[in-house]
Design a protein that fits this description.
alpha+beta; two-stranded antiparallel sheet; about 50% helix; single chain
Length: about 70
């Protein structure tokens, strides 16, 4: 695969991810688990590991490790 093809694929993947992220309805103070899970899946595919913790109100927080 040529470098140009790699750049094109990276661009297409980036646009898809950004389009997906923009489409998530996120409101401060409300459950945002869907976007957290979306990002978690993308990062897992790239080899990242993560774990989830919860605050006192049982709202899910995710911390990523590499």
């Amino acid at each position: 695969m040529s470098t140009e093809n790699n750049v094109d694929q990276l661009f297409e993947n980036s646009v898809k991810i950004l389009t997906d992220l923009i489409a998530f309805k996120t409101v401060s103070g409300e459950d945002n688990n869907s976007i957290i899970n979306y990002c978690d899946e993308i990062l897992k595919k790239l080899g990242a590991t993560s774990f989830k913790t919860f605050d006192n109100e049982k709202k899910e927080l995710t911390y990523l490790q590499h």
